[in-house]
Amino acid sequence: MSSHSSPDFDVVVIGGGSAGYAAASATARSGLRTAVIEGGKEVGGLCILRGCMPTKALLYAAEVKHLAEHAATWGIQVPEVRFDFAQVMARKNAMIADFAGYRRGQLEGGRFQFIRAHARFVDPHTVELDNGQRLTSAHFVLSTGSTVSTPPLPQLSTIGYLTSDDAMKLERLPKSLIVLGGGAVAVEFAQFFARFGVRVTLLQRSAHLLRDFDPDAAEVVENVFRREGIELFTGTRLLDARAEGGLKHLTFEHAGQTRTVSAEEVFHGLGRSPNTSRLNLPAAGVTLDAAGRVVTDVQMRSSAPHIFAAGDCTGPHEIVHIAIQQGETAAHTILGARPARMMDYRLLISVVFTDPQVASVGLTEAAARAQGREFIAASYPFNDHGKSLLMEAKDGFVKLLADPRTGEILGGTCVGPSGGELIHEIVAAMAKRTTAGELAAMPHYHPTLAEIWTYPAEELAAQISN
């Protein structure tokens, strides 16, 4: 961009998912000339098309089926539970078409220019589109999202595997499946497939599933999975993969022994990688970390002061509500709005939609120890709680962490029924820096699931007042 010419746009957003849409809406609303460049085959971003929304639709279907199969617990007779997988997928597809259509309408609504193309930087202020056109902009927001990571064994690419993207398009269920990974995507899909009658084996590298949570939370899910017939191997190292006799065979090391498991299909749930390689970021002066993520500060500014990033392509967490906050923070910074807005991950929420659900906010015990933060913790089990006993939802517990001196709540974990909903009580409490004593004193209706929080809160409050 030469000094005498003015740029084509004030802001160009590359990627039209949740983060990009949030940034573009905010800058366009404030009168900046904004463009969104989207190169994906479909419009809407991961959350709507292949992530949060479709997966939760399928998991809820699996839960309804599971409840119907166990209706006898409540004295209700369901003679035989059958399902039509095509219909399960058709309902999911109809809902996603609806959500995506709404987002497409927002993107094409004319508040900003919407360009369908891939872009790469030529210099810090210029991008070239794959149709040969060049655009200049005063500011850029990179929100190109993520793609499924390369598998850890090259042999896996030879034999072929399903990703979460492929699983969303399945027309029939495999009879057996090996799931690789122990994060949210891997465990959610493992339980979904198992509850729809697929024989599932799960291989996980670390000692526990869900390593972002404390081991006590992971153990609940591991026990439930084993009870539901999922074969589970933790602390594994993959050695080889081959296809033979219509099956796929994976060889791995476990507890000092070499083992092989076989299944019709393999599901690769070993995480996602930032989608930054085709942007030619060195030409823009943008620094990436070792994992390929755009390095940003708390205002989402990259190493090039006029280029920002938001969402999965920068991290540190691949979660849609954070992507939206990051997009809005980048826009706020570009607009020079006061007071300055900064990302604060103190209230980081994580939810895994297995049954039981696993949710946390703030610090886990492991994270508190890693930070050298002093804390006290108390937990209470669902198998001793009125409402969860009525529901026959006896797996799991709630746990609170508090500052030993002030009593301020530092974190909460909920493994159990509606855990993803229940955690928001602790989000609200922590947002206002509530103490355990204040939470314990707050009225809770009986019998509800939510009142379970008062038990660990009372236990912590008693320790602090002494």
Any key phrases for this structure?
466 residues; 3 domains; 21 strands; FAD/NAD(P)-binding domain; seven-stranded mixed β-sheet; alpha/beta; five-stranded antiparallel β-sheet
Describe this structure in words.
This protein has 466 residues and is α/β, with parallel strands linked by helices. It has three domains: 9-148 and 273-344, FAD/NAD(P)-binding domain; 154-270, FAD/NAD(P)-binding domain (3-Layer(bba) Sandwich), CATH 3.50.50.60; 356-465, FAD/NAD-linked reductase, C-terminal dimerisation domain (Enolase-like, domain 1). Helices cover 32% and strands 24% of the residues. The chain is built from 14 helices and 21 strands. Strands 1, 2, 3, 4, 5, 6 and 16 form a seven-stranded mixed sheet that branches. The chain has a five-stranded antiparallel sheet with strand order 17-18-21-20-19, with helices on both faces. A four-stranded parallel sheet has the order 10-9-8-14, with helices on one face. A hairpin with a 4-residue loop joins strand 17 (349-352) and strand 18 (357-362). Helix 1 (18-29) packs parallel to helix 9, helix 3 packs antiparallel against helix 4 and helix 3 packs parallel to helix 7 (184-195). The protein is globular and about 75 Å long. It starts with 8 loop residues before the first strand and ends with a helix. The model has no long low-confidence stretch (mean pLDDT 94).
